[in-house]
Amino acid sequence: MGTKNDIKMNLNFYLSRTNMKQKDFALLMGVSDQAVSNWLNGKNSIDIEIVPRICEALNISIDELFDRERDHDAKDIYYSIISLNEDSKDRVKRYILFEKEIGQSITRSDTMTTA
Question: How far is CA 21 from CA 9, 54, 84, in A?
């Protein structure tokens, strides 16, 4: 079973993937904003009774929340990015947008040549 820190990090990771605000997540879980904040900061453990609802809301398995199914590549990238300063984060965002534009451009070129 994952440690309290693993669970905190996983909850942050999966919540960020949903683009759901902490306040909305708290409302959905039927807990206070402070309770969610404490989970996300590792101050308090999650009550075992609420774990299935959390997993359903985040569309993950209990194993994923407790870090038994590992998506390390995505998580490693996420944790690396959130530890960057704002200027570096901005550079990463611009690079990702650039890559998307290039990928779309290549895809459009491929469809034009095959048509």
Answer: 16, 14, 21
**pLDDT per residue over 62-101, tens digit each?**
888 887 655 566 666 666 776 777 888 788 778 777 877 7
Q: How far apart are CA 9 and CA 94, in angstroms?
A: 25
pLDDT at 26 exceeding the cut of 80: yes
Q: Going by C-beta distance under 8 Å and a sequence separation of 6 or more, which residues neighbour residue 22?
A: 15, 33, 36, 37, 40
How many angstroms separate the CA atoms of 75 and 71, rounded?
Answer: 6
- List the structure tokens of 85: 């300063």
Closest by CA to 89, choosing from 74, 99, 103, 77, is 77
